[in-house]
User: Fold this.
Amino acid sequence: TQDSHGSGIYLAFSNNNTISNNALKESDFFDIFLFNTQCNNIIENNFGSGDYPIKHFNSQANLTDEILSELILCNADNSRISGVTISGSQRLKNNGILALKTDNATFDGINSSNNSFGIFLWESSNGNTITRGNFLDNGNSGIHLQGSGNTISDSSFSRNDYGINVVYATDNTLTNNSISFNRRSGVYIQSSGDNILIGNN
Assistant:
């Protein structure tokens, strides 16, 4: 699927689907996007923009030092993601890390730049830790937190539309991050409460 408007595959309010052995490239938003869907879909052996794999997990994942076009975590609690680079389209700012219904995961040393979102955490993804990441030049947000409470520290956010976007979210802690030269806002907080920001610059 080439040059799809929006997403290559947009999976919403769905369950028990199988998406495998597809080349999904150069979509405007995400090559594969999940919205308010169950986590029992099988999504495997797909390649996205940049000819890198799109990886999907619906249980605990452990990834180290990989280059991916896109990473999707759905109900993948306690995952450990370290040293992973997300590299989507060279022509479009698309893809990123999409995490939904995922709790207590650790993202360490992630480089998710020149994408649509660095990390998109939503649909009640709580207790996740993001540290020592680089989230630069993303078309939307370095990190988007929606309906989720997480900890983000010692990471860099620059030249995104929003560095960190917090929407309808509580109990997020942002500490010692470098947040500079983002186009609209370094940290944007909307309809949210009980968030803590300490030592960011």
About this structure: The radius of gyration is 15 Å. The mean pLDDT is 95. DSSP finds no helices and 25 strands in the chain. The CA atoms of residues 58 and 74 lie 5 Å apart.
